[in-house]
Fold:
Amino acid sequence: MGGTPRVAIIGAGIVGCSLADELVLRGWRDVTVIEQGGLFKTGGSTSHAPGIIFQTNASKTMQGFATYTIQKAASLELDGRWCLNPVGSLELALTPERLAEIHRRHDFAESWGLAGRVIDPDETAQLWPYVDRTRIVGAYHVPSDGLTDAMRVSEAQARRATEGGARFLGEHTVTGIRTDDGQVRAVITDHGEIPADIIVAAAGIWGPRIGAMVGMTTALQPLAHQLTWTTPLPEVQAFAIPPEREAIHPNIRVQDRDMYLREYPDRLAVGGYGHVPLPVDANDLLHPSVAPVMPSVLEFTPDTFAETWSWAEELVPALRAPGARIERGINGIFSFTPDGFPLMGESRDVGGFWLAEAVWVTHALGVGRAMAEWLVDGGSTSDLHECDLNRFEAHQLSPSFIHDRGIQNYVEVYDIVHPLQPMEEPRPLRTSPFYEREGELGAYFLEGSGWERPHWYGVNESLLGRYDIPSRNAWAARYWHPIVGAEALATRDGVAMYDVTPLKRIAVEGDGAAAFLDALTTNRVDRPVGTVVYSLLLDERGGVRSDLTIARLGQDRFQVGANGPLDLDLLERQAPHDGSVSVRDITSATCCIGLWGPRARDVLSTVTDADLSNEAFRYFQARDIWVGSMPVTALRLSYVGELGWELYTSAEMGLRLWDTLWIAGREHGLIAAGRGAFGSLRLEKGYRFSGVDMTTEHDPYEAGLGFAVRMDKGDFVGRDALVGKSAETVERRLVPLLIADPQAVVMGKEPVRIEGRPAGYVTSAGFGYSIGSAIAYAWLPVAAARPGRPVTIRYFGEDIPASVAAEPLFDPEMRRLRS
Ligand SMILES: Cc1cc2nc3c(=O)[nH]c(=O)nc-3n(C[C@H](O)[C@H](O)[C@H](O)COP(=O)(O)OP(=O)(O)OC[C@H]3O[C@@H](n4cnc5c(N)ncnc54)[C@H](O)[C@@H]3O)c2cc1C
Structure:
């Protein structure tokens, strides 16, 4: 293959056009965009989107995509017409709860670098004169938000791409994909084949159909969404908006009513998510040549919109005037995924087959850039772990899950969602072998990756007499109980068992296993059998993809403690395919109890003959031992910073392992403890949570993980990018903050300010019961990251005083772990 690869993009909606432009800008000129409809009113979702952009997003990555869309659209024009109209946005609060929520939204938006303000009803009415100000209690204003014209911005990018060498083929329908030896070779269309080394499906709601052409499940559910245009309104016409401007007042969101509005020169448009969900099967979508209006537009169903319209009338007096009504409406179709994030990345099974789907107009230009970076440079400057199409567990790819969760995400699109709020259905889905016992102990379960995970145990209420646990503010107190604190302290005082079964475990075996893991990760893995190593997976740019705990259980046998499906995917992709290495997900086949606390040795030694002395079984070592008749792999590690072991056995023996330890622990005061306590204890020790505390946007030295990097061991992925870097050269750092007020527990993603100016943001946070203080880990510029430095954390509109601390906050000499 000479020159740059031949890329075929399926779909000339806003995503396909953005990607083509970004690829050509990076010097990839052999780009063909294949579109079944006409160019550029293709009949896809882009053809009818009103182009409203709200950048604010709880995800840093998603907000970054939107900000890039705004910035790039502002730099484009088509035949002298704008691609961005920066009218700003307002999120209206109708209730005190929503007012609090928009403060929270303002806060995380500021964390990710977006300027906005929460304003009062009078100022809101000045900015958007159509509102009945008596109905609102405030609003969140983002001046840099705006409108784009989705088709115009698509065409503007397509023109530039064409000038740079790309081809756009309208009225070409993709009917198949030719693969050979697990690799894409060509796109098959109704006009013949187009050879390609890389195929990117940017087919929006048709995504599942294109995926099926290579036997792939696409986790995307098309849903119809209602949008209406009113009759001309004198109140709007009074502003004499020049037709070419289209709008001069901000776009509006009314999350309390699942509704949004935008202005046109003589009227308003009202869209709503409050209607009964209207899922559409991708296989039922029509071809543009036969669709009555266009394939992504179904006939408007006024009855399902009636409630939204009455809410709009309630809020906007102009809509109550005689003659004001809906003149036109559509049920337009677009895509929803099980978790609301887009689908980006390369298929696990078919080399060269990529997706860029389930993307809003808002994020499309950012997604185009990130995809182009990924394809051209091998990685993106944005952290993409939330968007990677390989992020799903097996059950999340079932048709019912994709359907039901897609609908649920549609319904919840504007809801106030607590960071710990679990999915409601299907539950229980994945249960560990200890589930029954946990239930008997009054476990309060939250769900994660489908697993039922105890957060605390009701039976431990009795511990509350022993410990004084501070109460919390209302938001932080959701999905929390003072028992959490008691379990944390009881772990430090005695011994507790934790169900850590849901943590991903991968067996990496074969005579090439050691060399493979050594070349893939940052630490020296090729060490004696029985050694455990903490090591990092980096991307080519030296950013932290994940952290792994790698136990060498035999010469050719490793057990890897990982963070999720993406780690498995990476290991599977990177492993040599010559039979020298096998990679297997053993999570479901096995289970694990973390037995931790100063009395852990006392408990374990009563049920095993293995020598558990500090000399024989040291910290960060692994042994295969017998617990009664059960073969157990014991790893002397602890994420909570106490003496103890992770004890693994096969799933069918799990219940007996639990019972055996439980009985043995009775005389030592053993308790079961949940994830709430686990989270608190790990924060006190400063153990990082990959994907939250650090991502591919951070290098190991910035994240305080330089100790896991061995630059002298030879090559590994990401090494080149780290040359010349060290803890001394970093410009930002992840540091703990201590909050003076014990009730002021924050949750993560809050902005940190220094002398009133934004300086960084919180990653994970909680309360450290042993140190008696609320803790927030935060990214700060290195000059500000000095212990003792006063800062404030913005939380629901308040500035909470805190200060930078030295880490670890608990047991810095590691006496407890090494005793
Ligand atoms: C009513 C409504 C209002 C919306 N409002 C907004 C908004 O204000 N802001 C916002 O951010 N988002 C909005 N959205 C969402 C937004 O419109 C979509 O998410 C976005 O346009 C998707 O762009 P896309 O390029 O992925 O898909 P599309 O625009 O659908 O492009 C996919 C293309 O693939 C082509 N294709 C499919 N199959 C084949 C094949 N076999 N061969 C060749 N070509 C094929 C299709 O013809 C289509 O043109 C709205 C959606 C709806 C329905």
Summary: Residues 186 and 196 are 5 Å apart (CA to CA). Residues 361-377 form the longest helix (17 residues).
